[in-house]
Amino acid sequence: MAAHWVTQQDAQSLIGKERQDFEAWLAQDVRNFGAYVRAQAFFRHLNYRASPSLSHVPARNTPSRPPWTATVSRRRFLPLAAASIGSLMLYDTARDQTVRLERGHELPRNYAWHQGVITLDALTTAYLPEATSSDRIEMINGRLGIQLHSGIVSVSTDTLRLTGTAADFDLTRSPQGLRLQHYAGTLTWQTPDGQHQLTTPTSVEFTQAGRSLQATCRPLSPDDIIEQTAWRQGTLVLNDTTLQNALARFAPYTRLKLMIRDPHLSGSRISGSFALAAPEDFALSIARLIRCRVEISNRSIAFTA
Fold this sequence. Notes:
This is FecR N-terminal domain-containing protein. The protein has seven helices and 17 strands. The chain is an alpha+beta fold. Strands 1, 2, 3, 4, 5, 6, 7, 8, 9, 10, 11 and 12 form a twelve-stranded mixed β-sheet that branches. β8 (161-174) and β9 form a beta hairpin. The two termini are 31 Å apart.
């Protein structure tokens, strides 16, 4: 039954009698909510979700072409999933020429590039060269995920240059600094202080010290990797996270204003896996977990005692 409700809420929110039936099912047994959350996590782990609209990526200094869009609903896709899963491709392909990729308050998007996939997070801007002639990416801001099955990729900022060989990593650039999450392959970075190399899963925080970059490293566990890479599949994984931090992490993916009206709720601890495409479901789940009320409108989501 949990799987039924997960597929029913794909690509659209429950309204009217469907919403009432869903709430009644949750109320029947305290274990039902846990089963529902696990079913959501299972489907997301398979990357089994409605695809976002795929649109043309305009080249820098070139006119845009008419967009091409495609959407898939799980309700229609379920009977064909077993037969078709091996041939599905839900990635944009990076066009020839240098292209500017930019995301606003939107879900992460995957782009096929070279022998792998590039994922742009919300509020991210980067420049990619012609896919067949260069391997160099210019990172402007936000978060970029790269999974390269073979070959070499280079990512540059104004203070750092990374080179990956068959590498899997995320790079985040924010006003607070640079953060590197290295999951697999070989990764080297060049700074004015010299060259450094990573071959094992590692988190690196870069801080500016005069004209130099200082790197603080810590190893990543398998659980860390699952949590840190979930965003690429449109999932937010929280592990004993405060409500205030949880809302801050969800905010880039929605234009709804997320608020805490009772300050004592800010420190409430949250654990779970949540779909970035469904802010209302995220809010209702949080309210059940910490036993508070939530007010949802077309402009905001507010948590109250």
